[in-house]
Amino acid sequence: xxxxxxxxxxxxxxxxxxxxxxxxxxxxxxxxxxxxxxxxxxxxxxxxxxxxxxxxxxxxxxxxxxxxxxxxxxxxxxxxxxxxxxxxxxxxxxxxxxxxxxxxxxxxxxxxxxxxxxxxxxxxxxxxxxxxxxxxxxxxxxxxxxxxxxxxxxxxxxxxxxxxxxxxxxxxxxxxxxxxxxxxxxxxxxxxxxxxxxxxxxxxxxxxxxxxxxxxxxxxxxxxxxxxxxxxxxxxxxxxxxxxxxxxxxxxxxxxxxxxxxxxxxxxxxxxxxxxxxxxxxxx
Amino acid sequence: xxxxxxxxxxxxxxxxxxxxxxxxxxxxxxxxxxxxxxxxxxxxxxxxxxxxxxxxxxxxxxxxxxxxxxxxxxxxxxxxxxxxxxxxxxxxxxxxxxxxxxxxxxxxxxxxxxxxxxxxxxxxxxxxxxxxxxxxxxxxxxxxxxxxxxxxxxxxxxxxxxxxxxxxxxxxxxxxxxxxxxxxxxxxxxxxxxxxxxxxxxxxxxxxxxxxxxxxxxxxxxxxxxxxxxxxxxxxxxxxxxxxxxxxxxxxxxxxxxxxxxxxxxxxxxxxxxxxxxxxxxxxxxxxxxxxxxxxxxxxxxxxxxxxxxxxxxxxxxxxxxxxxxxxxxxxxxxxxxxxxxxxxxxxxxxxxxxxxxxxxxxxxxxxxxxxxxxxxxxxxx
Lengths: 284, 382
Fold this sequence. Notes:
The complex is a heterodimer.
Chain A: H1 7-35, E1 37-39, E2 48-50, H2 55-63, H3 65-96, H4 101-109, H5 116-127, H6 133-139, H7 153-177, H8 181-189, H9 194-223, H10 226-231, H11 239-248, H12 253-280
Antiparallel strand pairs in A: 1-2
Chain B: H1 2-5, E1 12-21, E2 24-34, E3 39-43, H2 50-58, E4 65-70, E5 73-74, E6 85-88, H3 100-110, H4 116-126, H5 142-154, E7 160-164, H6 172-189, E8 192-197, H7 200-206, E9 209-214, E10 217-222, H8 224-229, H9 234-239, E11 244-254, E12 257-262, E13 265-270, E14 280-285, E15 291-294, E16 302-314, E17 318-324, E18 330-336, E19 349-354, E20 360-363
Helix pairs in contact in B: 3-4, 3-5, 4-5
């Protein structure tokens, strides 16, 4: 009661701030320090000292530019695929589902009841020789008898698309659901046929959902390594896999840290450019 | 056919329209002609089918049975975007992502009109908001949005402009102002306006012709004065203003007049104002048509004796009395405060009188409560 009003917001901020400081800011600083270290001369494996070796960044990038490129290409493809699948789905749930709306929404988030890892391993089964997909496609002569789907780039992209689909669907649904159906009726009333009404009214009004959904899919997809590790092959490694193996297998902390920062910076730049571009569109 | 529809002009004719949703009949065998160039109101309580009727004219719903013609063109199944009809939606439905200019230009651009800028500016001047062209709808007040919604529709010069409770979201003062403005704009542009409302005062202020709807049917259609002075049903008598409906029996005739017995007292009324089908009748008199006088004072016209004042409300321009009649009914009497006579008091023994020509006769089997319990204000959303 006697607490001065100005202090209340700070008190409310404190738990969150303390958490983020301990588990985000400090590790980031630690990671930044690690990224410019070099091995101690005649030291043990895993012993590093600070030498401000910024060349770590150049080396890390040059050595792994293929994996970097693959990360962004895979993330882009899965984001576009997820958008293509999620938009009609979200549209149908928002406008056409009637009394099934809630059930469909539960189904969209249902995968979260199982672990991300388990679901990805399940995809290995689905796409494997013993699954129904490969024999099915073979009997329809869509793929040849020798073609397999596991341990391919296709499997990695398919897995990522699947895993991030709810993150695309939910923001799209939220923005479509907010559209007043009367504005779409008004477009029809003002001489726009179905396609034009979608292009001129529904689509622009759902753009905030498109931006949110693509970001929520692209960012984690670009840094993902689980899908490539489980569903891919050595030739479909992404930068996340490199970071993982540098840390846990080769114990090359500085390169792993430098790669992490490079990845973060690259995503940040891309996302900023994207939001700038999308922001110039007529957003509400 | 669909390409011709866009150029159709003429009277709007609804022929035996029925619209059912499962077991529920929203519009029931409705036939209606709306003359070109008129300001027509569909008036009725929530759920009476007026909005459904409007949506069928707009093409947003398809009639279960019946046909809709505009002039000689059958538009019953024509898609909304192929009809020369525009709508001012209830909550305006402006496009939130477009500027006011682009909102108004939307219909023109879809039809590939050349001088978009000129036409938009002209209509913005008509609604007196040229300075708002660059704003977004959310930056406008309710009244401004209402005018933009109107501008967005009339800029297309449709054969028919539909207004769905266009003033419902505005406050009372703004609503009165917009009523006058809408009427003026209709005369200015010369389009046919079809206005749907539950507000009888709004309909009476603006429309040339009003169709009163109830339970999917038209109860009565006519000019505001016709409907008010000579209602044909209890619903119309109660929904438009207030009425005193007194049970009576037709007791013979006297030339052009009928003699009606109201609980033992004889009154007369013109034959042509009776809608009774047998000799039982409700005699209807509007409260302001009654005169009130103390027992013993001479009276003109019809009179009923034995009244006693139960309640007096002085409201400035008039005084409203509730008078208890000997047969147990309470009647409303509105007296103009224009004669310098102080109001009567509660408990005064009075005679009520009126000119026979003001009496209207309803069928004796009517439900005299019809149309009274509707409170338009709480039925905003249909």
